[in-house]
Structure formats: structure tokens, C-alpha cells
Amino acid sequence: MAGVAVGALALTFSTSVPMASAHGWTNAPISRAKHCQATPSLNCGNIQWEPQSVEGPKGFPNGGPADGKICSAGIGAFAQLDDQRNGSWPTNWLSSGATYTFKWHFTASHSTTDFRYYITKNGWSQNSPLTRGALELTPFLTVPYSGRPPADIAHSGKLPSGKTGRHMILSVWTIADTGNAFYQCSDVNF
Q1: Measured distance CA(154)–CA(28) in Å, rounded
Q2: Do 119 and 138 contact (CB within 8 A), yes or no?
Q3: Are 131 and 70 in contact (CB under 8 A)?
Q4: What is the pLDDT along the chain (190 residues), one digit of tens a residue?
């Protein structure tokens, strides 16, 4: 009887807690998810414990999370990432047109297709949740990757020219062997 109770408890626990086997976040530019973990006073909710878990359907921009829910990957528990907070998110300072080293940290790795980087259009609405209409839908940098990345990876690329003021960079890590990708939104100033 005790064995049945323990088995039932284990089944309940395993089906009620999301399983996380491999995830990651951007350290450069620092993403909203990572800022939330590093600064709990930002009051971000559950993402402060799981900056690596912003995982949603792959195929962006044709597929992926719905408009307005891109930064949270459509995960309701991470909806604070979609809130623009009237421009109060911490920003990363960048130089338009410069070469930049993008950095990811992984808590474990997945077989990877690529890393893609998108940026908001000039004149985008900084006070509205991120939509495809606010983004330049052709990535300014695509880094093909075959295999599983190490715990930390960096790759360099050129930032778009002609950017000034506040923008957002959407970093997408596309997984090869699942239907998902990881999404990281980083607030930047040029």
C-alpha cells in the first residue's frame, strides 16, 4: 500500500511540474529573462527562477509565438516579459553598424539548427508588446549550427546600420530535433 501511495505521489509530482532538460538565455545582449533573474526587484514573476525556459514553437517569423507574446514565447507564466513597462527595462548600449559578439549560456544543450537575430524597425512602438509588424522580419544575423553547443557560445556579427535610440533585439535559438525554439528579448540603446 505504501508503494502505491509513493508511486501515486511521484506520478502527481512528475505530471504537475514542467520538465526542463535543456535551455538557455542570452548574456550579450543581456535579455529580459536574465535581467529578471539577476534583479528580483524587477518583479518578473516565475521567469526569475527560469530565464532559460522561454521556449515556444519554432518557425519564426512565419510560425512561433503569437504577436504580443513573442518575448514570453506564449508562456502565460512568463507574460511579464511581454510588458514594455513604459520603457523601464534595463538596456544594453550598442553602436549602430558595429561588430558585436552575441553570447548565449545553456543549462544543457539541444541539437541546434541555427541562431537568428531580429531587430525592431525604426519608429516601432516602444509602449506596445512586440509584434512581427514592429520587427524587421529578415534576420540581420543568422548563424548556422550543427550539433549541440557547449555551455557557453559566442559568435560575432555586424549590428544593423542606421539605428538610433531604443530598440529591441529578438534572439531565436532554433532546435533541430524538436518543434521548438528559444526566444530572448533584449532591450538596447544605440
Answers
A1: 9
A2: no
A3: yes
A4: 444 444 443 333 333 333 344 588 999 999 999 999 999 888 899 999 988 889 999 999 999 999 999 999 999 999 999 999 988 999 999 999 999 999 999 997 889 999 999 999 999 999 999 999 999 999 999 999 998 899 999 999 999 999 999 999 999 999 999 999 999 999 999 9
Which residue shows C-alpha cell 516579459? 81
Q: And the C-alpha cell for 175?
A: 532546435
Q: What CATH class is the domain 24-189?
A: mainly beta
User: What distance lies between CA 59 and its chain's CA centroid?
Assistant: 14
Q: What's the rounded Cα separation, in Å, for the pair 79 and 167?
A: 20
β-strands 166-175, 152-158: how paired?
unpaired
The residues spanned by each domain of the chain are 24-189
Give percent helix, percent strand, percent coil of the chain, each to the nearest 5.
25, 35, 40
Whole-model pTM above 0.90? no
- CA–CA separation, 26 vs 136, rounded Å? 20
